[in-house]
Design goal:
By secondary structure, the protein is an alpha+beta fold. The protein has helices at 9-27, 44-57, 73-83, 89-93, 99-109, 112-123, 239-275, 287-315, 321-346, 357-367, 374-392, and strands spanning 129-132, 152-156, 159-170, 177-184, 187-194, 200-204, 217-228, 277-278, 281-282. Residues 237-384 form the Acyl-CoA dehydrogenase/oxidase C-terminal domain.
Length: 394
């Protein structure tokens, strides 16, 4: 999986077109399926049914080829945007967070044993995963600043013992495996764990504005969790390094998927504006509405170009931290404008669940926060500007 040399644009577009047909023809009708939990998140039964259909259609985990090769980031961007044409598309095609990011990380740095035990079931769509990094803010734990990590780990014989609390852990409820970050004397560490485990207790799953990810975003307690030493990723103290390997591409993957969702929401708004009559003409012929949809066209294209640029940087082998921060800010803010205008154009219809437009609006609002709020990324970029200035004037 670590080979990201790519397969070429013609082959990539063939995969993407196949994915798009599947999402539009098979997945979209499931958007009104009532198999949702009390947080309005899709149930595992619904996800399993969709993945079986994706497997039969040959579009399950389409960004990873049968021989284990991973599409380049530029190629992945094209495919993941097509899966995002429905909020259920990434779940059906097995390109959703946090699984997609976890697959990327394990493919990059996992041992052969870890890949066989933990990665392969994810690729096959047989398991869900979680990434345990964020901690409760009230306890001074890690959030946007991972150096504040309070979860501790200590070596005991051939096992590591982990204690702490985590918050906003997407998909923890119902996950089959997890990647847990904790702090040792040597620094941050990452561990692969089987789930469920009696040492990991889900304390609370809050209701949140978004509802696309099974299991919600849980608060969990970790009490004396024992993990075999060979289930640590790399060496003690290398956890932050591996977090960066995962987080830069993961930020971009969110951009890819939500670009697809906003393209679809904009299609729905365009259709509405061209059919709806008001004050003697269709809405699209009213300048106020027409200009909003024109602005959507511009924002969607700018988001696409920003994603392509950042993907090209990552494909060079660069860590791409600054580039992914810029992409995350620019794309999430642009897509928020698109989603908001789609709701506005559709009026009362835009705030109902009759279409996916209102859900896309909610999902994009949450996207502006997770994987680093806009302000944190701007602050990080400002620090880079200062470092670069000092270096240039040394």
């Amino acid at each position: 999986m670590s080979n990201e040399s790519g397969i070429g644009m013609e082959a990539t577009l063939a995969i993407a077109d196949k994915v798009e047909r599947f999402v539009r023809d098979v997945v979209v009708p499931y958007e009104q399926d009532d198999r949702r939990d009390h947080h309005d998140c899709p149930t595992d039964a619904l996800v399993t049914e969709l993945r079986e259909k994706a497997r039969a259609a040959g579009v399950l985990t389409p960004h990873i080829l049968p021989d284990g090769r991973h599409l380049s980031q530029r190629e992945t961007a094209i495919v993941l945007a097509r899966t995002g044409l429905s909020p259920l598309g990434p779940l059906a095609c097995n390109t959703a967070a946090p699984d997609e990011g976890n697959m990327y990380l394990l493919g990059k740095v996992g041992s052969d044993e870890i890949k066989a035990k933990f990665l392969q079931p994810l690729i096959e769509g047989q398991a869900r995963s979680a990434f345990f990094m964020t901690e409760p803010a009230a306890e001074g734990g890690a959030g946007s600043d991972p150096s504040m990590m309070q979860t501790m780990c200590k070596l005991d014989g051939n096992h590591w013992v982990i204690n702490g609390r985590k918050a906003f852990i997407t998909g923890a409820a119902g996950a089959h495996m997890g990647i847990v970050m904790a702090r040792a004397e040597e620094g941050a560490c990452m561990f692969l764990v089987d789930l469920p485990d009696p040492a990991i207790t889900i304390e609370h799953v809050p209701n949140t504005i978004d509802s696309s990810m099974p299991g919600g975003h849980a608060v969990v307690r970790i009490d004396n969790l024992r993990v075999p030493a060979d289930q640590m990723l790399g060496q003690a103290g290398e956890g932050f390094q591996y977090a960066q390997v995962r987080l830069a591409p993961a930020r971009l993957s969110h951009c890819m998927r939500w670009l697809g969702a906003c393209i679809r929401a904009n299609e729905i708004a365009n259709d509405y504006a061209n059919r709806r009559q008001a004050f003697g003409k269709t809405l699209i012929d009213h300048e106020g509405v027409g200009f909003m949809l024109a602005e959507n066209m511009i924002d969607l294209k700018q988001a696409e170009l920003m994603i392509d640029w950042c993907a090209d940087v990552l494909d060079t082998g660069a860590l791409g931290t600054a580039e992914s921060s810029m992409a995350k800010v620019a794309v999430s803010e642009a897509l928020m404008r698109v989603a908001d205008k789609c709701v506005q154009v559709m009026g009362g219809s835009g705030v109902t669940s009759d279409t996916i437009v209102e859900q896309v609006f909610r999902e994009i609002r949450a996207f502006r926060i997770y994987d680093g709020p806009t302000e944190v990324h701007k602050w990080s970029l400002a620090k880079k500007i200062k470092r670069d200035w000092k270096k240039a004037h040394a």
